[in-house]
Design a protein that fits this description.
By secondary structure, this protein is mainly alpha-helical. It contains six helices and no strands.
Length: about 140
């Protein structure tokens, strides 16, 4: 029963780690996203994107081993993704990270259980039971 005091501490540590893993990356992502959106809305980025699209238009009609497709979006894909689809990425992270982290924490708590906690009540190995099993083995008629 020496593991009893450590089990709540382990549970608390695992819960804290789970919260950090589920909430931390989305917070960092949104902090990074604000700065990156400011960079992507700069006029230079738009002109670079238009130059890239013009280059793809010129290359799309040529014969060669690779057929180029002109991007349809007037905005860079990173800008569209960060602006329009960031909440979906955060929900996906929190769902998948939360479920995976929760299952991992449950497995670690199961492994950390003491041997006396792992046996169902009434099914513990007692010396008297083991001795009695040897005496009555012949009476049961195995086979």
């Amino acid at each position: 029963m020496a593991n009893r005091p450590t089990r709540p501490l382990l549970s608390l540590a695992l819960l804290s780690a789970w919260i950090v893993v589920v909430v931390g990356p989305p917070c960092l992502f949104y902090a990074w996203r604000g700065g990156r959106l400011a960079e992507l809305t700069a006029p230079q980025v738009r002109s670079d994107w238009e130059a890239f699209r013009d280059d793809m238009r010129r290359q799309s009609g040529r014969d060669g081993p690779v057929q180029r497709k002109v991007p349809k979006s007037p905005e860079p894909p990173e800008l569209v993704w960060l602006r329009d689809h960031a909440p979906l990425a955060v929900v996906a992270w929190m769902t998948l990270g939360g479920v995976l982290g929760g299952v991992l924490a449950a497995l670690l708590l199961g492994v950390a259980r003491s041997p006396s906690e792992q046996q169902p009540a009434g099914h513990g190995h007692r010396k008297e039971q083991n001795d009695g099993d040897g005496k009555h083995a012949g009476e049961r008629g195995h086979g």
